[in-house]
# Entry
Amino acid sequence: MSQADRSAKHTEIAGATADRIEVRGRDLVGDLVGRLSFTEMFLFHLLGRRATPLQVAVTDAVLVSIMEHGLVPSAIAARLTLLGAPESFQGAVAAGLLGVGDHFAGTASRCAELLDRIVAVPPSERKALALTLVQSFRRDRKALPGFGHPTHRSGDPRVPRLIEIARANGAQGHYIEALSLLESAIAEVLGRTLPTNVSAAIAMALREAEIPTEAMRGVVLTARCAGLAGHLLEEMRDPSAEEMWQAVERAVPYKPQT
Amino acid sequence: MSQADRSAKHTEIAGATADRIEVRGRDLVGDLVGRLSFTEMFLFHLLGRRATPLQVAVTDAVLVSIMEHGLVPSAIAARLTLLGAPESFQGAVAAGLLGVGDHFAGTASRCAELLDRIVAVPPSERKALALTLVQSFRRDRKALPGFGHPTHRSGDPRVPRLIEIARANGAQGHYIEALSLLESAIAEVLGRTLPTNVSAAIAMALREAEIPTEAMRGVVLTARCAGLAGHLLEEMRDPSAEEMWQAVERAVPYKPQT
Amino acid sequence: MSQADRSAKHTEIAGATADRIEVRGRDLVGDLVGRLSFTEMFLFHLLGRRATPLQVAVTDAVLVSIMEHGLVPSAIAARLTLLGAPESFQGAVAAGLLGVGDHFAGTASRCAELLDRIVAVPPSERKALALTLVQSFRRDRKALPGFGHPTHRSGDPRVPRLIEIARANGAQGHYIEALSLLESAIAEVLGRTLPTNVSAAIAMALREAEIPTEAMRGVVLTARCAGLAGHLLEEMRDPSAEEMWQAVERAVPYKPQT
Amino acid sequence: MSQADRSAKHTEIAGATADRIEVRGRDLVGDLVGRLSFTEMFLFHLLGRRATPLQVAVTDAVLVSIMEHGLVPSAIAARLTLLGAPESFQGAVAAGLLGVGDHFAGTASRCAELLDRIVAVPPSERKALALTLVQSFRRDRKALPGFGHPTHRSGDPRVPRLIEIARANGAQGHYIEALSLLESAIAEVLGRTLPTNVSAAIAMALREAEIPTEAMRGVVLTARCAGLAGHLLEEMRDPSAEEMWQAVERAVPYKPQT
# Structure
């Protein structure tokens, strides 16, 4: 291969010829279809190599945990979009996914960055670092990503379950410990506990399984894509978007500035 | 130019060199910026030639007519999206535009197709064709695009205004007449009148100005893009998406299937 | 429950209280997380009941089959979107999904409708109906959904694999037969074969598993959402969107109308 | 009005009754349609009050300046999306707008923040502050928003034109001066000039007209929405998305990791 070819841009993901489709160097039909579950294939695609049993177990648990939480803003946006554009199922799904941003989804990635910093230092220094991190967020009056929840005030029930699943599948426990150190540091700095939310548990679980932080958004979006598909199916069979619209108009009436 | 070059794909819209930007063959800076209003430039871009005064007047009137109608589903979807993804203003706008589809926006294009069919026949045959068209929609139990409105039941106030503006700017009146023929045919076939809605008036006005039917969606979307920008500005300054969410959850509660 | 309550709108999908999240009547944490794979949960959400082994096997095979096909238009659109808006991973995914519409994704649903019509008649009449359907498409000069492919001209390798997986997991075979009848009818009407594409195989496989046609778009979009997540991860690590842009500008140059 | 009502959420934008539509306290049909141009209406909506002649002139000039720049990534993404989803014009527009993010559009807002900081201090201190700001960006190795351009290397021709239009319409000149101070500071700190790009000129022009920084994204998106509508019209009449796709596949081939 010449120098020019080496430096040229390419994709390592997939390619097709008339009778063969290759994904990351493997024959799609011969090696993957019928042999891998969705989650195994998703991880093979994201990681570029076959996933470990821990990675599959944890990713399945995370995907199941966040697929559905009912009429959250992204589901409402998707249903209202279908009302206006019934011809475009994909447009309604896209509208829903557009709300899966920093406020809800981004916290998993940002919490993972905190956990990574704690795990990166020697075990004996982790407690002090957790305290420093919490103090720094408090000083800047910024919300600590992964903590606090409007509904699950005494703790999101998904958090202990994800810890349990990670442990049961052979996680080493460094990230579980880091999360626990952050919880203790919060109690010390604030003088009270904050509920650990599912974003923190996702961060912990996926990092225990060595799934890179930059892949987390893709995992969250895929779970929500599946969730939105179900909402739109319900909306097509038993529409309620008109009622949602009317409820919003009543709750936020027009009052001209005087 | 060789035969191969002639048949090759190209764009006629715009191109740039180091010191010049050309849009449809004109020097952007020297010929267009500071000389054309937004609407004149938009029409120059859509039509590929300078717009007539009738085209500009009618397009401005249409754009102003539909920019804002308050907390319609697309505005709610945009605001809910900003709640989840405050980092992406464009994502919230896009979510709102995704609901500007067949149910609301598509009716203008479909009504324009009906009007085009009526105007295409000799004047003496138009009344009979309008009747045939309305009967055909009734037979197929399909809604006639451009008629009926949940709020403006005795007629949308924008309809007579757009007719007035088209006439005042030199429209020939064929499409105004065709719309009137459809209204009479509806009264005859149904035994009662239906309110003509703003989509029908948009179709009539833009076709009077010889703006092609296939350009209508772009006009509607641009007006709504501007409208959504204002909603998101209000949402950033005085957020109400949390209240919208709660109102929807109350209006459409979770009841598991039994 | 009063009459008013009965008729009121509700959602059967999910709801949450302070210490419990319920999805379709089940305790999310106790009954689903850690017990169901992603695909089992997705089907539970779409169908409202636990999926059969045939449904899980076929859905996994379909999801794996269409997750990746390389730099298809939706992947290019997603990568170009990330170039302009690196702050919004979800925006880039949404842009990619917006291209998963009638041209590529809709064919599975439309092919399923044809197969449903054939399976709905007594076995002795199916061959004749398949012939009638193909003749009708030919008369209207419309493309038969599920047949023809620009790359896989002698047949998409995923088609026989999906048939094999359906059979191996206990499919009854009515849809496999219906697909075969369509293939024979095409050969008879056109005097030559057309390649059966993956959309037809998806339609066949999911209908063999009694997954409703209206749920197919959601399955396709979820597979592609996972695929796009991997493309964006590659784009973040080894960007090529600038090169894509330049390649397009060279391929489709600006030539003003003369 | 009770205390509860006062504190309740409301919208000041628009509302409708059976025979009247009100936008920001004015009768849409009687006061606005046929009286305001698109740009005047857009500014009335964004600002909540009638725009000044300077505001209209500058906003029109900005909208015209950035409506079209040819086959930029957002236009390519929109066209590729239409290829896959020809049924959804709004989906293709939305896909295009999703790329109008921090990399291209966000620079106007960020540059405006720099200009605001310079204008906020007494005139005698502005030169020193501009120098400090440029040095700070250089120290952090961050790109100064509004400067540098891959094509227009000796300066974007739109920049002097927007300055000229602002001046000709009565701008006070504080932001023009601030921009000039930044240019001088860059030359001093870097030892060479950087081309001022159109984002800086948009920031300068809109701030001269007292249009708030947080409204800039909406202005940019609306101009691009109009631009994308024209691209999609060309794509519908003379499709080139297939050629774009092939060009990308050639430029970025599949090479599996070895």
